[in-house]
Fold this sequence. Notes:
The protein has helices at about 15-20, 40-45, 55-65, 80-85, 100-115, 130-140, 165, 170-185, 275-290, 300-320, and strands at about 5-10, 30-35, 55, 70, 90-95, 120, 145-150, 190-195, 210-215, 220-230, 240-245, 250-255, 255-260, 265-270, 320-325. With about 325 residues, it is α/β, with parallel strands linked by helices. The protein folds into 2 domains: about 5-125 and about 275-295, Rossmann fold (3-Layer(aba) Sandwich), CATH 3.40.50.720; about 125-275 and about 305-325, Dihydrodipicolinate Reductase, domain 2, CATH 3.30.360.10. It has a 9-stranded mixed sheet. A 6-stranded parallel sheet has the order 3-2-1-4-5-6, sandwiched between helices. The longest helix has 20 residues, at about 300-320. The radius of gyration is 20 Å and the shape is globular. The model has no long low-confidence stretch (mean pLDDT about 95).
Amino acid sequence: MDKVKVAFVGCGGICNFHLSHLLQFDDVTYVGFMDIRPERAAEKAALAGGAKVFDDYVQMLDEARPDVLYICVPPDQHGFIEYEAIKRKIHFLVEKPMALNLKLAEEIRDAAAEAGIITAVGFQDRYLDIIEKTKEFLQGRQVGLVDGAWMGGIPGVYWWSTYATSGGQIVEQNIHLFDMVRYLFGEPARVYCAAARGLVKREGYDLHDYSSAVITFKNNIVATLFTGCYLDHNVPHKNGLHIRCVDSEIRYILRQSVELDTGDSVQLYKRQVDQGVTEDRTFLDAVKTGNPAIIRSPYSDACKSLALTLACNQSIATGQPVELN
Ligand SMILES: NC(=O)c1ccc[n+]([C@@H]2O[C@H](COP(=O)([O-])OP(=O)(O)OC[C@H]3O[C@@H](n4cnc5c(N)ncnc54)[C@H](O)[C@@H]3O)[C@@H](O)[C@H]2O)c1
Protein backbone atom coordinates (compact mmCIF):
# COMPACT_ATOMS: atom_id res chain seq x y z
CA MET A 1 0.00 0.00 0.00
CA ASP A 2 1.59 3.30 -1.16
CA LYS A 3 -1.03 5.55 0.39
CA VAL A 4 -3.04 4.79 3.51
CA LYS A 5 -6.76 5.59 3.20
CA VAL A 6 -7.82 7.28 6.45
CA ALA A 7 -11.27 8.07 7.82
CA PHE A 8 -12.30 9.75 11.07
CA VAL A 9 -15.36 9.30 13.24
CA GLY A 10 -15.58 12.07 15.83
CA CYS A 11 -14.12 15.37 14.61
CA GLY A 12 -13.46 17.43 17.75
CA GLY A 13 -10.29 18.33 19.65
CA ILE A 14 -8.37 15.08 19.44
CA CYS A 15 -9.24 14.62 15.77
CA ASN A 16 -7.48 17.94 15.24
CA PHE A 17 -4.42 16.61 17.07
CA HIS A 18 -4.14 13.49 14.87
CA LEU A 19 -5.03 15.28 11.66
CA SER A 20 -2.31 17.90 12.29
CA HIS A 21 0.22 15.04 12.32
CA LEU A 22 -1.20 13.09 9.39
CA LEU A 23 -1.09 16.25 7.27
CA GLN A 24 2.71 16.18 7.67
CA PHE A 25 2.87 12.77 5.93
CA ASP A 26 2.73 12.35 2.15
CA ASP A 27 1.41 8.78 2.20
CA VAL A 28 -2.11 9.50 3.49
CA THR A 29 -5.35 10.02 1.57
CA TYR A 30 -8.47 11.17 3.39
CA VAL A 31 -11.57 9.25 2.41
CA GLY A 32 -14.16 10.34 4.95
CA PHE A 33 -15.04 12.38 8.02
CA MET A 34 -18.12 11.80 10.18
CA ASP A 35 -19.40 13.57 13.28
CA ILE A 36 -22.86 13.90 14.79
CA ARG A 37 -22.17 17.63 14.39
CA PRO A 38 -21.73 17.72 10.61
CA GLU A 39 -20.15 21.18 10.64
CA ARG A 40 -17.21 19.72 12.56
CA ALA A 41 -16.75 16.94 10.02
CA ALA A 42 -16.94 19.52 7.22
CA GLU A 43 -14.34 21.72 8.89
CA LYS A 44 -11.86 18.83 9.24
CA ALA A 45 -12.59 17.56 5.73
CA ALA A 46 -11.76 21.01 4.38
CA LEU A 47 -8.47 20.99 6.30
CA ALA A 48 -7.72 17.63 4.71
CA GLY A 49 -8.11 19.07 1.23
CA GLY A 50 -11.81 18.52 0.60
CA ALA A 51 -12.47 14.94 1.69
CA LYS A 52 -16.01 13.56 1.70
CA VAL A 53 -18.27 14.21 4.70
CA PHE A 54 -20.66 11.49 5.80
CA ASP A 55 -23.57 11.67 8.23
CA ASP A 56 -23.49 7.94 8.97
CA TYR A 57 -20.30 6.07 9.85
CA VAL A 58 -21.60 2.70 8.58
CA GLN A 59 -22.18 4.25 5.18
CA MET A 60 -18.73 5.85 5.39
CA LEU A 61 -17.04 2.51 6.06
CA ASP A 62 -18.94 0.82 3.21
CA GLU A 63 -18.49 3.54 0.62
CA ALA A 64 -15.13 5.05 1.48
CA ARG A 65 -13.48 1.71 2.40
CA PRO A 66 -10.73 3.19 4.60
CA ASP A 67 -7.63 1.17 5.46
CA VAL A 68 -7.67 2.76 8.91
CA LEU A 69 -10.29 4.43 11.06
CA TYR A 70 -9.52 7.00 13.73
CA ILE A 71 -12.18 6.67 16.46
CA CYS A 72 -12.21 10.01 18.29
CA VAL A 73 -15.60 10.06 20.01
CA PRO A 74 -16.34 10.75 23.71
CA PRO A 75 -15.79 7.89 26.18
CA ASP A 76 -19.45 6.81 26.38
CA GLN A 77 -19.88 6.46 22.59
CA HIS A 78 -17.85 3.31 22.02
CA GLY A 79 -18.96 -0.16 20.96
CA PHE A 80 -20.97 -0.08 17.73
CA ILE A 81 -18.31 1.91 15.89
CA GLU A 82 -15.54 -0.56 16.77
CA TYR A 83 -17.72 -3.54 15.85
CA GLU A 84 -18.53 -2.07 12.43
CA ALA A 85 -14.79 -1.54 11.81
CA ILE A 86 -13.91 -5.04 13.02
CA LYS A 87 -16.62 -6.61 10.83
CA ARG A 88 -14.99 -5.00 7.78
CA LYS A 89 -11.41 -5.74 8.97
CA ILE A 90 -10.57 -2.04 9.14
CA HIS A 91 -7.58 -1.26 11.38
CA PHE A 92 -8.31 1.40 13.98
CA LEU A 93 -6.70 3.84 16.37
CA VAL A 94 -9.11 4.59 19.20
CA GLU A 95 -8.78 7.26 21.80
CA LYS A 96 -8.52 6.51 25.49
CA PRO A 97 -10.56 5.69 27.51
CA MET A 98 -11.75 3.08 24.99
CA ALA A 99 -14.97 2.41 26.94
CA LEU A 100 -16.42 3.05 30.38
CA ASN A 101 -17.18 -0.61 30.91
CA LEU A 102 -14.37 -3.16 31.07
CA LYS A 103 -16.51 -6.01 29.73
CA LEU A 104 -17.25 -4.05 26.54
CA ALA A 105 -13.56 -3.17 26.10
CA GLU A 106 -12.51 -6.79 26.60
CA GLU A 107 -15.09 -7.99 24.09
CA ILE A 108 -13.80 -5.48 21.54
CA ARG A 109 -10.23 -6.57 22.33
CA ASP A 110 -11.10 -10.21 21.65
CA ALA A 111 -13.11 -9.48 18.50
CA ALA A 112 -10.29 -7.32 17.08
CA ALA A 113 -7.73 -10.05 17.81
CA GLU A 114 -9.98 -12.67 16.21
CA ALA A 115 -10.34 -10.50 13.08
CA GLY A 116 -6.55 -10.04 12.94
CA ILE A 117 -6.74 -6.27 12.63
CA ILE A 118 -4.15 -3.81 13.92
CA THR A 119 -5.25 -1.63 16.82
CA ALA A 120 -3.69 1.28 18.67
CA VAL A 121 -4.93 3.32 21.62
CA GLY A 122 -4.08 7.01 22.04
CA PHE A 123 -1.58 6.76 24.87
CA GLN A 124 0.63 9.34 23.18
CA ASP A 125 3.05 9.65 26.15
CA ARG A 126 4.50 6.20 25.46
CA TYR A 127 6.08 7.77 22.34
CA LEU A 128 7.86 10.57 24.22
CA ASP A 129 11.63 10.73 23.67
CA ILE A 130 12.06 11.66 27.35
CA ILE A 131 10.17 8.53 28.36
CA GLU A 132 12.58 6.49 26.21
CA LYS A 133 15.44 8.11 28.20
CA THR A 134 13.63 7.31 31.44
CA LYS A 135 13.15 3.68 30.46
CA GLU A 136 16.85 3.35 29.56
CA PHE A 137 17.90 4.92 32.87
CA LEU A 138 15.63 2.58 34.81
CA GLN A 139 17.32 -0.51 33.32
CA GLY A 140 18.91 -2.45 36.17
CA ARG A 141 17.86 0.09 38.81
CA GLN A 142 15.73 -0.71 41.84
CA VAL A 143 12.70 1.47 42.52
CA GLY A 144 10.78 1.75 45.78
CA LEU A 145 8.36 4.66 45.87
CA VAL A 146 6.82 6.71 43.09
CA ASP A 147 4.51 9.68 43.33
CA GLY A 148 2.80 11.64 40.62
CA ALA A 149 0.06 14.10 39.86
CA TRP A 150 -2.30 15.28 37.16
CA MET A 151 -3.93 18.42 38.49
CA GLY A 152 -5.82 21.14 36.70
CA GLY A 153 -9.24 22.59 36.04
CA ILE A 154 -12.32 21.38 34.21
CA PRO A 155 -11.76 20.77 30.48
CA GLY A 156 -14.14 22.56 28.11
CA VAL A 157 -15.66 19.54 26.33
CA TYR A 158 -19.43 19.12 26.82
CA TRP A 159 -19.31 15.50 28.01
CA TRP A 160 -16.64 15.88 30.72
CA SER A 161 -18.54 16.68 33.93
CA THR A 162 -20.40 13.43 34.64
CA TYR A 163 -19.27 9.90 35.41
CA ALA A 164 -21.81 8.54 32.91
CA THR A 165 -20.24 10.38 29.98
CA SER A 166 -16.53 10.72 30.83
CA GLY A 167 -15.86 8.09 33.51
CA GLY A 168 -14.43 10.78 35.81
CA GLN A 169 -11.01 12.44 35.80
CA ILE A 170 -8.98 9.33 36.62
CA VAL A 171 -10.52 7.32 33.78
CA GLU A 172 -10.67 10.14 31.25
CA GLN A 173 -7.53 12.14 31.97
CA ASN A 174 -5.12 10.78 34.52
CA ILE A 175 -5.38 7.41 32.77
CA HIS A 176 -2.29 8.72 30.94
CA LEU A 177 -0.18 8.56 34.13
CA PHE A 178 -1.79 5.31 35.29
CA ASP A 179 -0.82 3.87 31.92
CA MET A 180 2.67 5.36 32.26
CA VAL A 181 3.37 3.68 35.60
CA ARG A 182 2.32 0.37 34.02
CA TYR A 183 4.59 1.10 31.04
CA LEU A 184 7.53 1.79 33.37
CA PHE A 185 6.95 -0.62 36.27
CA GLY A 186 4.84 -3.52 35.04
CA GLU A 187 1.57 -4.86 36.31
CA PRO A 188 -0.26 -3.66 39.44
CA ALA A 189 -1.53 -6.11 42.04
CA ARG A 190 -3.86 -3.86 44.03
CA VAL A 191 -5.18 -0.30 44.22
CA TYR A 192 -6.84 1.76 46.90
CA CYS A 193 -8.27 5.17 46.08
CA ALA A 194 -9.73 7.88 48.33
CA ALA A 195 -11.59 10.84 46.83
CA ALA A 196 -13.69 13.82 47.84
CA ARG A 197 -15.87 16.63 46.52
CA GLY A 198 -16.98 20.07 47.66
CA LEU A 199 -14.55 22.47 45.99
CA VAL A 200 -16.03 22.47 42.49
CA LYS A 201 -19.46 24.05 42.30
CA ARG A 202 -21.06 23.55 38.88
CA GLU A 203 -24.49 22.56 37.76
CA GLY A 204 -24.71 19.01 36.48
CA TYR A 205 -21.21 18.08 37.71
CA ASP A 206 -21.09 14.79 39.62
CA LEU A 207 -17.35 13.96 39.64
CA HIS A 208 -14.93 13.84 42.54
CA ASP A 209 -12.80 16.99 42.73
CA TYR A 210 -9.67 15.18 43.82
CA SER A 211 -8.36 11.75 44.69
CA SER A 212 -5.28 9.90 45.80
CA ALA A 213 -4.67 6.37 44.50
CA VAL A 214 -2.11 4.02 46.03
CA ILE A 215 -1.06 1.30 43.61
CA THR A 216 0.98 -1.69 44.77
CA PHE A 217 2.75 -3.40 41.88
CA LYS A 218 3.48 -7.13 41.63
CA ASN A 219 7.19 -6.26 42.02
CA ASN A 220 6.42 -4.36 45.28
CA ILE A 221 6.86 -0.84 43.90
CA VAL A 222 4.29 1.46 45.50
CA ALA A 223 3.03 4.42 43.45
CA THR A 224 0.74 7.18 44.68
CA LEU A 225 -1.04 9.21 42.03
CA PHE A 226 -2.93 12.45 42.73
CA THR A 227 -5.74 13.52 40.45
CA GLY A 228 -7.54 16.86 40.78
CA CYS A 229 -9.74 19.15 38.68
CA TYR A 230 -10.46 21.89 41.24
CA LEU A 231 -7.56 24.26 40.48
CA ASP A 232 -8.21 27.70 39.05
CA HIS A 233 -4.57 28.23 38.11
CA ASN A 234 -2.28 26.34 35.73
CA VAL A 235 0.45 24.07 37.11
CA PRO A 236 1.68 22.04 34.14
CA HIS A 237 5.24 22.12 35.49
CA LYS A 238 4.07 20.38 38.69
CA ASN A 239 2.42 17.43 36.94
CA GLY A 240 4.32 14.26 36.17
CA LEU A 241 6.15 11.59 38.15
CA HIS A 242 8.82 11.47 40.83
CA ILE A 243 10.55 8.10 40.88
CA ARG A 244 12.77 7.19 43.82
CA CYS A 245 15.39 4.56 42.93
CA VAL A 246 17.85 3.09 45.45
CA ASP A 247 20.77 4.99 43.87
CA SER A 248 19.06 7.91 42.15
CA GLU A 249 15.87 9.73 41.40
CA ILE A 250 13.93 10.68 38.32
CA ARG A 251 11.85 13.83 38.01
CA TYR A 252 9.57 13.65 35.00
CA ILE A 253 7.62 16.81 34.16
CA LEU A 254 4.62 15.82 32.11
CA ARG A 255 5.37 16.02 28.36
CA GLN A 256 8.16 18.55 28.98
CA SER A 257 11.36 17.18 30.48
CA VAL A 258 13.03 14.58 32.65
CA GLU A 259 15.86 14.94 35.17
CA LEU A 260 17.93 11.85 35.89
CA ASP A 261 19.64 12.55 39.20
CA THR A 262 22.33 10.20 40.57
CA GLY A 263 23.33 12.50 43.43
CA ASP A 264 26.68 13.21 41.74
CA SER A 265 25.20 14.47 38.50
CA VAL A 266 21.89 15.54 37.05
CA GLN A 267 21.13 14.95 33.39
CA LEU A 268 18.31 17.12 32.07
CA TYR A 269 16.51 16.13 28.87
CA LYS A 270 13.86 18.33 27.31
CA ARG A 271 11.33 16.89 24.90
CA GLN A 272 12.74 17.26 21.36
CA VAL A 273 10.36 15.23 19.23
CA ASP A 274 6.58 15.63 19.00
CA GLN A 275 5.29 12.37 20.45
CA GLY A 276 1.96 12.74 18.65
CA VAL A 277 3.73 12.65 15.28
CA THR A 278 5.65 9.54 16.37
CA GLU A 279 2.42 7.92 17.61
CA ASP A 280 0.57 8.43 14.33
CA ARG A 281 3.57 7.58 12.15
CA THR A 282 4.05 4.35 14.11
CA PHE A 283 0.40 3.35 13.66
CA LEU A 284 0.50 3.96 9.91
CA ASP A 285 3.82 2.13 9.56
CA ALA A 286 2.41 -0.83 11.48
CA VAL A 287 -0.50 -0.99 9.04
CA LYS A 288 1.68 -0.50 5.94
CA THR A 289 4.16 -3.18 6.96
CA GLY A 290 1.65 -5.48 8.67
CA ASN A 291 3.75 -5.33 11.83
CA PRO A 292 1.71 -4.52 14.96
CA ALA A 293 4.73 -5.15 17.23
CA ILE A 294 5.93 -1.55 16.82
CA ILE A 295 2.75 -0.12 18.39
CA ARG A 296 3.47 0.83 21.99
CA SER A 297 -0.16 0.74 23.09
CA PRO A 298 -2.18 -1.97 21.37
CA TYR A 299 -5.82 -2.33 22.45
CA SER A 300 -5.09 -5.50 24.45
CA ASP A 301 -2.48 -3.75 26.60
CA ALA A 302 -4.56 -0.59 26.99
CA CYS A 303 -7.36 -2.71 28.47
CA LYS A 304 -5.12 -3.22 31.52
CA SER A 305 -4.74 0.52 32.06
CA LEU A 306 -8.48 0.94 31.67
CA ALA A 307 -9.01 -1.84 34.23
CA LEU A 308 -6.67 -0.08 36.68
CA THR A 309 -8.52 3.24 36.42
CA LEU A 310 -11.95 1.63 36.63
CA ALA A 311 -10.70 -0.19 39.74
CA CYS A 312 -9.93 3.25 41.25
CA ASN A 313 -13.56 4.26 40.70
CA GLN A 314 -14.66 1.00 42.31
CA SER A 315 -12.38 1.64 45.28
CA ILE A 316 -13.75 5.18 45.65
CA ALA A 317 -17.30 3.83 45.59
CA THR A 318 -16.73 0.99 48.06
CA GLY A 319 -13.99 2.42 50.29
CA GLN A 320 -12.11 -0.87 49.80
CA PRO A 321 -8.90 -1.78 47.98
CA VAL A 322 -9.37 -3.65 44.70
CA GLU A 323 -7.24 -6.67 43.76
CA LEU A 324 -6.16 -6.79 40.12
CA ASN A 325 -5.25 -9.88 38.19
N1 LIG B 1 -4.81 10.99 23.84
C1 LIG B 1 -4.96 12.20 24.33
O1 LIG B 1 -4.01 12.83 24.78
C2 LIG B 1 -6.33 12.81 24.32
C3 LIG B 1 -6.48 14.20 24.44
C4 LIG B 1 -7.77 14.73 24.38
C5 LIG B 1 -8.87 13.89 24.25
N2 LIG B 1 -8.68 12.53 24.19
C6 LIG B 1 -9.82 11.61 24.11
O2 LIG B 1 -10.43 11.71 22.83
C7 LIG B 1 -11.83 11.51 22.95
C8 LIG B 1 -12.54 12.70 22.34
O3 LIG B 1 -12.14 13.87 23.03
P1 LIG B 1 -12.20 15.32 22.32
O4 LIG B 1 -11.40 16.20 23.20
O5 LIG B 1 -11.85 15.21 20.89
O6 LIG B 1 -13.75 15.64 22.49
P2 LIG B 1 -14.61 16.63 21.61
O7 LIG B 1 -15.90 16.81 22.31
O8 LIG B 1 -13.78 17.82 21.25
O9 LIG B 1 -14.84 15.79 20.26
C9 LIG B 1 -15.63 14.64 20.21
C10 LIG B 1 -16.44 14.71 18.92
O10 LIG B 1 -17.17 13.49 18.78
C11 LIG B 1 -18.46 13.82 18.28
N3 LIG B 1 -19.35 12.70 18.59
C12 LIG B 1 -19.96 12.43 19.76
N4 LIG B 1 -20.62 11.27 19.68
C13 LIG B 1 -20.44 10.81 18.43
C14 LIG B 1 -20.89 9.66 17.73
N5 LIG B 1 -21.63 8.72 18.33
N6 LIG B 1 -20.54 9.51 16.43
C15 LIG B 1 -19.77 10.45 15.80
N7 LIG B 1 -19.31 11.56 16.42
C16 LIG B 1 -19.64 11.73 17.71
C17 LIG B 1 -18.81 15.14 18.92
O11 LIG B 1 -19.80 15.84 18.21
C18 LIG B 1 -17.46 15.84 18.92
O12 LIG B 1 -17.27 16.64 17.78
C19 LIG B 1 -12.11 11.32 24.44
O13 LIG B 1 -12.18 9.96 24.75
C20 LIG B 1 -10.89 11.93 25.12
O14 LIG B 1 -10.59 11.32 26.36
C21 LIG B 1 -7.44 12.00 24.19
